[in-house]
Design a protein that fits this description.
Blueprint: H1 9-73, H2 79-100, H3 103-116, H4 118-140, E1 147-150, E2 153-156, H5 161-164
Antiparallel strand pairs: 1-2
């Protein structure tokens, strides 16, 4: 009688080694691909963060330039001129710092500032939020007026009189002066 357990131990052992080697190779390849994907994602995220940081720094620099222009138009030595100049200088320095630091350093600096001055940080954050809201609201107002919903229908708010003269009225019908037919009563 033949022993079926040990009929081909060398062949089974070779097959077992091949399976282990193939599994190890597949695992190594999967790890390498996952690392490549993670590196690509991290690289793309860092590039996007740098682009956003550069755009934000440019915006801050633009605001600083506008403040400097406003300060130049004010009376030299006036409190307003000095305030605008100081704000412009501070924003220009902040813009340069934004460009020079990486995102992690900036987050750390903001976090440290918030820990040292929580009320100033919260007040500044609230002011930035209010300013951003006002800016967004002003940016979304259409040339003719704001849109709003009334009883399920979307309508357009009337344009304030001080803005009405700037509108192109080529496609708007002018109101009729007297629309009542002669001889009829309304």
């Amino acid at each position: 009688m033949t022993d079926t357990k040990n009929s081909n131990p060398a062949g089974a052992q070779d097959l077992n080694e091949k399976v282990k080697a193939t599994a190890a190779s597949a695992t190594d390849e999967a790890k390498a691909r996952a690392k490549d994907v993670a590196d690509t994602v991290a690289s793309d995220a860092a590039r996007y963060a740098d682009e956003a940081k550069g755009a934000a720094a440019s915006e801050v620099k633009g605001v600083a330039s506008a403040l400097r222009t406003a300060a130049d138009e004010l009376r030299s030595g006036s409190p307003q001129e000095r305030t605008f100049s100081q704000l412009a200088d501070g924003l220009a320095d902040a813009s340069d710092s934004m460009r020079d630091k990486d995102l992690g350093e900036m987050v750390g600096a903001v976090s440290d500032f918030a820990k040292r001055n929580p009320f100033v940080f919260l007040g500044g954050a609230a002011l930035v939020g209010f300013a951003a809201t006002r800016f967004a609201k002003a940016s979304n107002t259409g040339a003719r007026g704001e849109r709003y919903a009334y009883e399920g229908r979307e309508m357009e708010r009337p344009v304030p009189a001080e803005r009405a003269h700037n509108l192109d009225t080529g496609d708007v019908a002018s109101p009729a002066v007297n629309t009542t037919p002669k001889g009829s009563t309304v």
